[in-house]
Amino acid sequence: MKSEGFAYAAMAAAGHSCIDASRKLAAQKFTSTELVGLVGLLDAAFLSSVMFGTGMFDSNTISQLADVNMFLEVLVGSSCIKVVVGYMYQRALHVSPLSVTVPYLAFTPVLLVFTSYLVMRESPSTQGMLGVAIVTLGGYLLAIDQSGDAEGKKPKGAKTFTPSESYLVSVLPNSAVPGMKLEKKEDKESDQVLITVNDNDNATKDVPTPARTRTYKKAIEWISKGRSPLLDPILALKKEEGSLLMLGVAALLSLSNSFDKLGAHMAPSFVVFAALQRILMAIPVVLYLAFTSPSSFKHLFRHFPLMAGISIFECGAILCYLKSLETLLVAYSIAAKRSNVLLSVIVGHLIFKERICRRLPYVFLMVGGMILILLA
């Protein structure tokens, strides 16, 4: 039974990799709001068709549940959390660089160890928790590497510094070193601090360098060499709104994932829970799109195959994920589903010709963590 659960989790991971690739292609034609709203509408329509078409739901389905009130609370709660998470996710990406936001999503499996115990009283084994921790570490490192590649191009002659480095630069005066000019400005595309360091050998020739100036120069040289960005997401918590938002996203996702398992177990079928949840999630995002950009609905007809393809991948991934929860602990299922980043790396290499050699150590680390979970 456990192997069956991992098989469904693996299919959910494959589905999410297909979603990533198809959304990346669709992002060239549609805005994020259009994608979320229109695909959410199709998700609700497809899953509702399956639910009603198979006779899983009728007027008496809800009333026959053992605890109707608790089921409705879990259903509405999980749906609202996912809608809020969608807004927080988009807001985090808007106000802060990818490199200090996306890596926090890797912490969801670890947070699930705590939330699943509080909600479902689930307790993974020691080996299983070690596997979850290793998968989380691999996902964190891989997310940092991928988000670093996604940052905007910096202007010629400028140096882009990470939050921890830019803080040091920010305390240096523009005339810290004779002949060395620091031009500090914000890059709107990547939300980072760009520093242009102009050296003028003629200006500094035969000019005595005070001790304080030498300290400034050493600091600039140390910063310019660049340091490991592994701690940047953590250091950014003090100054980046997006980092705090994405950490909140990871925490809320861990809670909603626990609610997903509880709701799927209480519902007549996991398909019914998925359909009702998607209907509730679609209502606010579709209404928002209708008020802000009603002309966007024309894309449903002009680009229906593409939109339908993304929605089918999403529905398949949702159903496989909920099915895996029947036999797996939530933390194990999410850790297995998180392996979709491995497939995304491969898809990125095959379709988008992305370089993956330096990412292989992180991939192997995640595979090792998954092996520990499988053997737990």
TrEMBL record:
Keywords: Membrane, Transmembrane, Transmembrane helix
Name under which the protein is recorded: EamA domain-containing protein
Lineage top rank: taxon: Eukaryota
One Gene Ontology cellular component: membrane
Coiled-coil features, chain-numbered ranges: none
Gene that encodes it: LOC112276688
SUPFAM superfamilies: Multidrug resistance efflux transporter EmrE
TM region(s), chain numbering: 35-57, 69-89, 101-120, 126-144, 271-291, 303-324, 359-375
